Amino acid sequence: MGISKELKKKFAGFSEEDRARLVRMGWEDRTTFEVIAVQFGLSPNEFVHFMRSVLSGNAFSRWRRRVFEQGRLKNEKKRGFKSTRFKCSRQSVDGITKGWR
Fold first, then answer.
1. Is residue 85, in this structure, part of any structural domain at all?
2. Is residue 66 helix, strand or coil?
3. CB 51 within 8 A of CB 26
4. In a domain, 80, yes or no
5. pLDDT one-digit tens code per residue, 2-43
């Protein structure tokens, strides 16, 4: 399954910091696909392609299984609650959680 030229160009436009942030957002249950679309302009399908291109095969399989099994957490419409923030209250701007080693 290949990625289109337009999508490759879109992914190439992200800095390494943005790529790392996207991967962290993908693993977080708090961050929905809608939030990723607002911040980075990626649809859920494009985000899945991004994760496939960045993660190793085993890591992508684990992530995809997790998102599928807990899909209600990554889709805002399926959630039973409304999250008012994008990150944990202990998390700083650069994504590092305070107090954890």
1. no
2. helix
3. yes
4. no
5. 778 888 888 888 899 999 999 998 888 778 888 888 889 999
